[in-house]
Amino acid sequence: MTNRQAAAAILDRMHCTIRLYQPTDREAVDRVGLAAFEQYAHAYANWPRFSARIAHTSELAGQAELLVAESVGEVVGAVLHVAPGKPRSAIFPDDWAVIRMLVVAPERRGQGIGRELVAACLQRAFRDGAPAVGLHTSPIMETALRLYTTLGFTRDRDLDPIDGVAYGRYVLPAAGLQAALARLANWPS
Questions:
Q1: CA-to-CA distance for 74 and 138, rounded, in angstroms?
Q2: pLDDT category of residue 86 using cuts at 50, 70 and 90
Q3: Going by CATH, does the domain composed of 3-185 fall within 3.40.630.30?
Q4: Where do the domains of the chain lie?
Q5: Which of 9, 50, 108, 147 could form a disulfide with 76 if both were Cys (CB 3.0 to 4.6 A apart)?
Q6: C-alpha span between 3 and 85 (Å, rounded)
Q7: What is the pLDDT of residue 15?
Q8: Has residue 164 got a pLDDT over 50?
Q9: Is 105 exposed, middle or buried (0-12, 13-18, 19+ CB in 10 A)?
Q10: Cα separation of 187 and 185, whole Å?
Q11: Bridge partners of 165?
Q12: Mind listing the pLDDT tens digit for each residue in 91-107?
């Protein structure tokens, strides 16, 4: 393989398609979800209980739009977009859009996959006319938190810890959606 072919193969591998979850994605989505959270196992007071829930990330598809990032036929990330009016946690108003469970395969981090998944959620929130987009995350999830705050999400309240890990609710008002999407579109490679 020439250097040019190797470079082309790397670029092809880095490109991903964001699409709706299909039942055939179940095992891959569950595997990526668990792998994405394993780095935090030490922080959760009851990792076995928490990880058992994470290992069933695909079940969220029955609640809202589960989006997957696919690259060269492989699921490399996922996120849940909860549209306004759909069932959600009581911590979010019914008319908000909600981003849940952003996960990227550890070996594929740093390639923009998380940004593409978040962009897909923000586009849907804009499409749905949501007055705000909410999410909950933890300070231990530094990379995701940095992405969210760079896009304009602000912490508006503390939440009860989950298995001993602190969480907060973050919100991006609809007025900030277009600016956030523009930041994502112009993100340096």
A1: 28
A2: very high
A3: yes
A4: 3-185
A5: 108
A6: 51
A7: 76
A8: yes
A9: buried
A10: 6
A11: 162
A12: 999 999 999 999 999 99
